[in-house]
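Example 376.
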Amino acid sequence: MPRRAKIAVIGGGILGLAHAYTAARRGHSVTLFERGHAATGASIRNFGMIWPIGQPPGEMHQMALRSREIWTEVLSSARLSYLPTGSLHVAYHDDEAEVLREFAAIAPPAGYNCEWLDASGVLERSDAVQPRGLKGGVWSAAELTVDPRLVIRRLPSYLRELGVAVKSGSAVTRIDLPRVETGAESFEADLAVVCSGDDFETLFPGLFRASELTRCKLQMMRTAPQPGGWQLGPALAAGLTLRFYKAFQMCTTLGKLKERITLEKPEYEKYLIHVLVSQTADGAITLGDSHEYGAAVDIFDKAEIDELTMREAESFLRLPDFRVAERWHGVYSLHSAKPFFEAEPAPGVHIVTAPGGSGMTLSFGLAERTMNGLSL
Ligand SMILES: Cc1cc2nc3c(=O)[nH]c(=O)nc-3n(C[C@H](O)[C@H](O)[C@H](O)COP(=O)(O)OP(=O)(O)OC[C@H]3O[C@@H](n4cnc5c(N)ncnc54)[C@H](O)[C@@H]3O)c2cc1C
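Predicted structure in complex with flavin-adenine dinucleotide:
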């Protein structure tokens, strides 16, 4: 293991992996430090949705599309599979259909490749959508589904092929360039990129404390692999999701939908529940999620959240087998006002973290942006 690199990357989640990849592809020597023996943070606990449709128009949407492009190159080179599933947002209420119709009218000129489909059009695209009461939906071709467990476990091996030195089981406890110290060893680097996820306490705690960053806990579920090789097709979202993704804030009709949900579904509002559906490489279905904000994360999961999530899922999803095989929660970091957080706490040290619920989507685009900004 070399003791010196041009760039030290701290964190083996998707942001750290993406930064190490980008730096290595540009010909720099890189050491990647991951505290755990394998990464167990947000990046391995998510839906694996590369989801440009969720990003607001302009810079963030462009970054998501660029990120998607790099994702496909990386996955192909790393011999990792992915599904170009696209996505469907489905509507069962008039107000949901109004928002989605409006989105389908105004989003394409803003660069979103999507269209409104009536109920039969949706059902032609997906066997997994519940036909009863279906009003239609928005189809978008841009979304990809990756299997986060495969990707986060295997990308480090691919990075090694590119010459990256990967140090797992190594928490970086101090950066004073050129020195980068773990609990047991000392390394040297010209630059450091810190992608420490929601760890605000180990490195630069004072800066994090002053930075308006917080944590969000999400509860998740997964079924066993669906029988007979059943395929989900497009990843799915429904009416509750329209409240969350910034892209839909373009729609003037969104306010009415939000008001109805607040009145009709206070229990969903309490834990900010909506339902996304994706499929992993082995055929299992991932379902979630909820949003509980705050620096202190409740380690105990709430059965009520899982029940509400499943009830909502059953309202629009048809699955051969709904039985839950796994439950877990994930935590991501987010900033109160910015789509991600950057800081330079010391010359040559760059913190890049807190892409909120869009870190898988933005990762490679964000890494390219960081690397373009470094003086190398
Ligand atoms: C349940 C859930 C579902 C989600 N679904 C999606 C989705 O489908 N699509 C999407 O785009 N986004 C999704 N997100 C958001 C996305 O997962 C995150 O934004 C993203 O994973 C954050 O990546 P990260 O690398 O910053 O953090 P993490 O994945 O948390 O990685 C940080 C890593 O840094 C390591 N680390 C921290 N400090 C140190 C140190 N001092 N030394 C060494 N190592 C250190 C940690 O051990 C950890 O492995 C979801 C998030 C959750 C929780």
